[in-house]
Every structure is written in C-alpha cells, then in structure tokens.
Specification:
The chain contains nine helices and no strands. With 172 residues, the protein is mainly α. It has one domain. The chain is globular. The mean pLDDT is 83. InterPro entries: MFS_trans_sf, NFD4_C.
Length: 172
Amino acid sequence: MPTMDSLKPASRYTNEEVEWHRLAELSTSNRPDMTVCQTLWTVDFWLIFIVMATGASTAIAAINNLSQIGRALHVNDVKFFVGLVSIWSCFGRLTGGFLPDILLKKGVPRPVSLCFSTGMISITHLVLKSGAIRLGSVMIGFCYGSYWSITPPITSEIFGLTHFAATYKTVT
C-alpha cells in the first residue's frame, strides 16, 4: 500500500494533508485491540450499547408504525412518508459519515455525534406526537440513518480493529 511519502515529494504537502496524516497516525497508534469478552467489562461498551438500544430501537419502532400514525392523523397517502424516511435515511448516513470527521478535526469527539443523533430522535418523537408527520418522517429517517455511519468508527476507535466485526455486532 502506498504511503504519503511515496505519493508526493515532501515539499508539495499542504498543511491540511500533514495534519490529516498526523491524526491518522495518532488514532491508530494508541488504539487498543480488545476481544468481545474484554469489551463487555468496559463502561464504554455499555454506554454505546444503551444509546444504540434506546435510540435506534425507538427510531425503528416509529418507522415500523408510520402507517398507523398516518392513519390516526387521517393522512391519505402514507407511502409518501415511508419514502421520505428512506430518502432522508440516505442523507443521514452520508452526513453521519463526514460530519463527525470534520468535528473530530476541530476537537469534538465522535461520540458527541452519536449523542446528538439520540437527542434528535427524542425531539423527533415529540414532533410526531404533535402531528407533523412530514417533518417527523424526515427527522426520523435522518437520525436513524446517521446511527449506522457513526457507530462503526466509534466502535473501532474505542475497542480496536482486531475483533471489530464481533464487537460491532455485539454493540448493535
């Protein structure tokens, strides 16, 4: 695999490229490699697990019951709202992929993004309760989608990459 040194002469690096390279080295140099059994004994695992269990589960419950919510609000075309959830879930996955990286560069840890998504899901339930099904569909899709692009990097940063697949599936 080519390194940064083999791609360009040293004089052509921009400050941003050097900073990203330094951050990448720091993030991989002090990363622990924990087994699933070891992760089960950490507070970090249980915090991420509880956030995922409460946030993602309530989001999927709202998505699952969107048809009933629409009928209760006397909405004729509920399929439209299901489509909104799907479209905004895609945008949530894209935004949840690049925004935590930008915030990390500014010193904000990735788990803050996960907490933000969980808070937004709580607000979304209040929006759905108020009867604003269009806005609620957009918000629930966006927040639910962002969970699935925020959680893998957090899991790999905290618990390492050696047993990543098993750890990630245990968290989610």
